[in-house]
Amino acid sequence: MSEEILINITPMESRVAVVENGVLQEVHVERTQKRGIVGNIYKGKVVRVLPGMQAAFVDIGLERAAFIHAAEISNREGSAVESIGALVHEGQSLVVQVTKDPIGTKGARLTTHLSIPSRYLVYMPRTAHVGISLKIEDEAERERLKQVVADCVAAEGIEEVGGFILRTAAEGAGKDEILVDIRYLRRLWEQIAAQ
């Protein structure tokens, strides 16, 4: 199997392509002028709670405070919580992820339902679920991949594992490749959580 990484950098954008056996697998384009913050993870501070809107404003270091709705805040007990006041309070620190860039006078939209992508997996540290891309249609492959993740998690001896979504690129991937992704994502999450 041949694998190539092609990189093209200009003053306006950077492009990276991954090619396996002559077939394009991934393309990433980053433009310097329109670089958004969607997907970025921040440790923010609740600056205002709005009970009437079931929402709060969170300072994540941008010009305007970002907005988070109660439905986007993880509830550790897992039960439905009626009040934003029961979830957060002013001055509280939150680890959040941007779901929508700021536009005009509106701040960014946030969630505490974090997701961290890698090549084969998306890691969700606060969810206990293993899902598989709907584009992987072969039922035997879907079951194999679920078992591979379960075996990798057991082999690592991870107690609070979180959840994973197996991406389309995981189709045909071996246990070693999935294990490398799991280790990478766990290390990344540990670094984020430590801050």
From TrEMBL:
Cofactor(s) needed by this chain: Mg(2+)
Keywords noted in UniProt: Hydrolase, Magnesium, Metal-binding, RNA-binding
UniProt keyword Cytoplasm present: no
One BP term from GO:
rRNA processing
GO terms (molecular function) for this protein are: hydrolase activity; metal ion binding; RNA binding; RNA nuclease activity
What InterPro entries does the annotation carry? Answer: NA-bd_OB-fold, RNA-bd_AU-1/RNase_E/G, RNase_E/G, S1_domain
Q: Which residues form the S1 motif domain?
A: 39-113
Provide GO CC annotations from the record: cytoplasm
Fetch the SUPFAM superfamilies from UniProt. Answer: Nucleic acid-binding proteins (SSF50249)
**Which Pfam family is one of those matched by this entry?**
S1
Tell me if Methyltransferase is a UniProt keyword of this record. no
Protein name from the UniProt record: S1 RNA-binding domain-containing protein
